[in-house]
Amino acid sequence: MLQVDRLSKRYGDRVAVNAISFSIAQGETVGLLGPNGAGKTTAIGMISGITRPDAGEVSLGGVSLAQNANALKRHVGLVPQDLALYEELSASANLQLFGGLYGLGAAELQPRAKTALALVGLAHRDTDRVKTFSGGMKRRLNIAGALLHDPDLILLNEPTVGVDPQSRNAIFDNLEELKRRGKTLLYTTHYMEEAERLCDRVLILDHGQILANDTVAHFKQQYTNLEAARRSWSNRGSA
Ligand SMILES: Nc1ncnc2c1ncn2[C@@H]1O[C@H](COP(=O)(O)OP(=O)(O)OP(=O)(O)O)[C@@H](O)[C@H]1O
Ligand SMILES: [Mg+2]
């Protein structure tokens, strides 16, 4: 469904993303892992059309997104790393604003806002101002904002940062529901255990390059072998 082909971006002398290529099948959930500064946000920015690539191409279902802004708007939802919410406005009012960005009219927006709020478990707080929300609730509203136009591909940039384990679980339940509905997810995180719980496959990004692209099961197997090798090596050393 998503095809990323030799996508590159530099800032001055610094190469943020270095000719990365990968694809994601319809309904697949892929983790994008890497340390601070690895290039995750830059990559997500280019895929979502916010950041202009220096080179390379992103296409969705065979359609180049650079040449088809409409396809991008219709089919891709972005959950940004930083919260993009108006604290003084209610949850519903925030979603009305988001919906406007996606080109949704008032009539269709209302039921969609309701559905999105229900999906992230915030239906009962729809008229409350965002400033009265906990950090985890704000994170969930941030996710709802990306779901209004019912996108096929959802890009999530560290959606669980700064939330407690309970809220993280609630967010994961929301994401698992999206998976069940057949959505395609690209999930950015620093944590392998998050990827393990949610993702079918992981991409490891470092210094702008993809170091690994594998299923979580295969990854774990490799890791176990590595641990076993280390143990046997240290046993031999001490014998
Ligand atoms: N607007 C910008 N101007 C200059 N350099 C930038 C800009 N955005 C990112 N960079 C640089 O590009 C590199 C990749 O940054 P990016 O934000 O993509 O990393 P990241 O993997 O998302 O990191 P984090 O885990 O901290 O969010 C870093 O070296 C960063 O300093
Ligand atoms: Mg980032």
List the strand order in the largest sheet: 6-7-8-3-9-10
Count of domains: 1
Percent helix, as a range, is 40-55%
CATH class: Alpha Beta
Mean model confidence by pLDDT: 89
Based on CA atoms alone, the radius of gyration comes out at 19 Å
Based on Cα principal axes, name the global outline.
Answer: globular
Tally of contiguous helical segments: 8
- Biggest pleated sheet: 6 strands, mixed
Textual characterization of the structure:
The protein is of the alpha/beta class. Helices cover 41% and strands 26% of the residues. It contains 8 helices and 10 strands. The strands form 2 sheets. The protein has a 6-stranded mixed beta sheet, sandwiched between helices. Helix 3 packs across helix 4 (106-119). The site of magnesium ion has 3 residues, from helix 1. Magnesium ion binds next to helix 1.
Features:
239 residues; binds magnesium ion; binds adenosine-5'-triphosphate; single chain; alpha/beta; 4-stranded antiparallel sheet
Quick synopsis:
With 239 residues, the chain is an alpha/beta fold. Helices cover 41% and strands 26% of the residues. A six-stranded mixed β-sheet has the order 6-7-8-3-9-10, sandwiched between helices. A four-stranded antiparallel β-sheet has the order 2-1-4-5, with helices on one face.
